[in-house]
What we know:
Blueprint: H1 2-28, H2 35-56, H3 63-77, H4 80-92, H5 96-125
Helix pairs in contact: 1-2, 1-3, 2-3, 2-5, 4-5
Amino acid sequence: xxxxxxxxxxxxxxxxxxxxxxxxxxxxxxxxxxxxxxxxxxxxxxxxxxxxxxxxxxxxxxxxxxxxxxxxxxxxxxxxxxxxxxxxxxxxxxxxxxxxxxxxxxxxxxxxxxxxxxxxxxxxxx
Length: 126
């Protein structure tokens, strides 16, 4: 039961963070391109790298805290379903180049951010 509550609580926090970050990014860059979702996926991937790196160093919190942070907060914060919808919407509007740019930039930079997060933890911990 504690695990379910940890996921639900973390998910609510992550979803609120996603909502506010998306709004802030889109207020700065009010274009038809979904920069907010790209930024969220990159930041979420970076944070996943940092947490994974910290946990791998033996700074292992309880299982409930891990589920709260990774499944709850980061699961609620990152937006792969929104990413998928935005990709298809760009494609259906005939914006094929933007759709491809969106998919490639999100995937490449999100994976890069995760690697950067892992690297940062390793450098700072040595």
